[in-house]
Design goal:
Blueprint (H helix, E strand, L loop, with lengths): L8 H9 L4 H13 L11 H23 L1
Helix pairs in contact: 1-3, 2-3
Membrane topology: Peripheral membrane protein
Subcellular location: Mitochondrion inner membrane
Protein name: Cytochrome b-c1 complex subunit 6
Length: 69
């Protein structure tokens, strides 16, 4: 077994895809600013958060599966 540390290629690919998902990131950041003072805990930005990561995943998937072939 090798002593080299295994690097997850998905993390690198996610970084390269982030510029393609700027709109979703800005929507999420705007939401977090809007609900900043919410003490009730009823407001959340779950939808925007998932939209952002869905965009990242959609960008990464073809690259990742090509590398895994």
């Amino acid at each position: 077994m090798s002593d080299e540390e295994v690097v997850d290629p998905k993390e690198t690919m996610e970084v390269s895809c982030k510029p393609k998902c700027v709109r979703q990131l800005k929507d999420y950041q705007a939401c977090t600013r809007r609900i900043e003072g919410d003490e009730s805990g009823s407001k959340h930005c779950t939808g925007q958060y998932f939209d952002y990561w869905q965009c990242i995943d959609k960008c990464v998937a073809p690259k990742l599966f090509e590398k895994l072939k």
